[in-house]
Design a protein that fits this description.
Length: 390
């Protein structure tokens, strides 16, 4: 059980140790900045182990209150002998990865919903029922029959659209009773992806300009971490409920839809080489749509990878070298998502602007002289991602 005197002494000794090490190794730290990271991590690990060991010690029945206020035989004669707890579990370490993984799958499904996969299968089903296409007893025709028969057992289109609206704020469907649309998701997700791309762009520039560059101003870990934690915390309360079951069912539905589109008799019907060709042919011929298949599909794949990365504890890594190594996993995915979103008009590259106020969809614009124009507030730009034809 740690007393107030022990508590104070521990942190004083840790601070003295840091100063002594920094003083003795000052010349080495200048020529080898990575050494500072290694030393800092070792000292932090020592402190964490001491705090963890103290946390496992069972406290007295009254949590040390009697000693503090001077009651009973264990009454403290001075403040230094009273018990002080080390603290509570950090907020950012209490998120379940399974729920964030489910959100990633839902984002993947949303992009395929926007592409028009389910609408294409529905149109093909209508043509099959009307007998206006040359489908009869092939594997595609039989799969269409089964697809229709299972429809009564699945979540409906309304359920899917309501889930997208609740989790991402996307679409025009009403949210379920008692919940609300997550209007902050798109700006937080775009902001995090943008900060990841800026981090690696700054890192590459620093590597070119300065040999073995290690200046923290070239790629800020803290900004990337804060953007990621803001996004993860936003999703924490919106990933409860039937989301996990719904995404499993709709992922199965998506797989079944592509098996239908890729069946030999359906491909032969449209003179197509793949299921994607069939999908685009139906969207053009019967819905007269402008195709967004490629950018949307890549946004779904890369966006899901970014959210899966956030589901892991990588964002909490405090050592710069390890954080960079783990962040490298989503460096190219983030760049590709941002490029695709920019091409679709769903996001912007905002240069070096780092801060995202909570009431804006883009960072505050800054004039060439570094000051925002007086009396002019930044305009909110609507995210077209929210539009959906219900």
């Amino acid at each position: 059980m740690s007393t107030q005197k022990d508590y104070q002494s521990l942190y004083d000794r840790i601070a003295a140790l840091r100063e002594q090490v920094a003083s003795q190794l000052s010349s080495d730290l200048v020529s080898n900045p990575q050494l500072a990271d290694a030393i800092t991590k070792q000292i932090d690990d020592m402190l964490a182990s001491a705090v963890a060991a103290d946390s496992k010690t069972a406290p007295p029945a009254d949590q040390g209150l009697a000693s503090l206020i001077g009651i009973g035989p264990e009454a403290a004669k001075e403040l230094g002998t009273t018990r002080i707890p080390p603290g509570v579990e950090p907020y950012d370490e209490t998120i379940t990865s399974e729920r964030i993984m489910a959100v990633g799958d839902m984002y993947y499904l949303w992009q395929h919903e926007k592409i028009g996969v389910f609408r294409a299968v529905q149109k093909l089903q209508e043509l099959f029922k009307a007998g206006t296409v040359r489908l009869s007893a092939g594997p595609g025709a039989f799969a269409l029959y089964q697809f229709d028969r299972r429809d009564v057992l699945r979540y409906t289109k309304k359920d899917r659209l309501s889930a997208y609206k609740r989790i991402f704020g996307y679409g025009g469907a009403p949210v379920p009773t008692g919940s609300r649309a997550n209007t902050d998701f798109h700006k937080l997700f775009s902001h995090f992806v943008h900060q990841v791309t800026l981090f690696w762009r700054d890192k590459r520039i620093s590597d070119v300009i300065r040999e073995r560059a290690y200046d923290p101003s070239f790629g800020s870990v803290a900004i990337v971490r804060r953007a990621g934690l803001d996004l993860r915390n936003n999703l924490k309360w919106l990933s409860f409920g039937h989301l996990n079951v719904l995404r499993v069912e709709v992922m199965q539905l998506l797989e079944e839809a592509f098996k239908i589109l890729g069946s030999p008799d359906v491909k032969r019907l449209f003179g197509a080489d793949s299921h994607w060709d069939v999908l685009e042919e139906i969207l053009i011929r019967y819905h007269n749509e402008r195709l967004v298949t490629s950018p949307r599909q890549r946004m779904g794949v890369t966006g899901r990878e970014v959210l899966r990365w956030l589901a892991q504890p990588h964002i909490l890594q405090t050592t710069r070298a390890q954080f960079e190594t783990l962040l490298l996993e989503i460096a190219e995915q983030s760049e590709e998502w941002l490029t695709s979103a920019q091409a679709m008009g769903l996001s912007k590259r905002t240069g070096a602007h780092r801060v995202l106020p909570w009431d804006q969809t883009q960072p505050t614009p800054v004039k060439a002289n570094g000051r925002q124009k007086a009396g002019v507030s930044p305009q909110r730009e609507p995210a077209r991602e929210f539009e959906f034809e219900v």
